[in-house]
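Data card: per-record layout.
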Amino acid sequence: MQNKAEQILQFMKVLDKACLVERATRLSDGRFETDSSHTFKLCFWCMLVYPYLKHKYNYTRLLELALVHDIAEAETGDCPRSVQRRHPEMKAQKDLNEREAMLKYKNMLPAPLGEQIMTLYQEYEGKNTPESRLVSALDKIDANLQANQYHDGDVRYWLDLEDGDEYLTINTEKKEVVAVLDEKIVEEVEDAVIALTKGNIKKCKLKP
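The structure for this 208-residue chain is written out next.
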């Protein structure tokens, strides 16, 4: 039987794999964004909006949810939102694969860590707590912002992605998860990102 240190080291190998997962959106220099860079920014989103939130949230829980929300992709890889929207069957398969990955992690880690990781994942996916809804909203805002960062807003690359034309809709629409929060600061940053997106679409002469 592995001791606790060995189990934790095994899980750290999973996180190394998560750092290698590439997403569809690009960084400013043209490299693909990774799950780890996205998670890093999502944690900062939580930190940056927290002082301006109207409702009370558990700050530690926000950061924990942000850290855990994409780690299943170390096993499954990323499936862009554009693909998920156009192909519901792929989203269903993605959800199933991610649950299986999280169960693997739960069994990999010693108690109570395994249960804690699984509980955080289920909370995030369920969107049934204020913290999970806030992190989900910030996750979507960050994805929209990052999609605009390549070469100072050259969004023409969207059309080269799988179902990339969906980004024209995804990145210019208000998200229901933001509206239900009733948090002015989150609505303001969403509006700012949408305005940036529309400006870049116009600049690149794309048709929304």
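Known properties of this structure: Residues 109 and 146 are 32 Å apart (CA to CA). The chain has eleven helices and two strands.

See the next section for split statistics.
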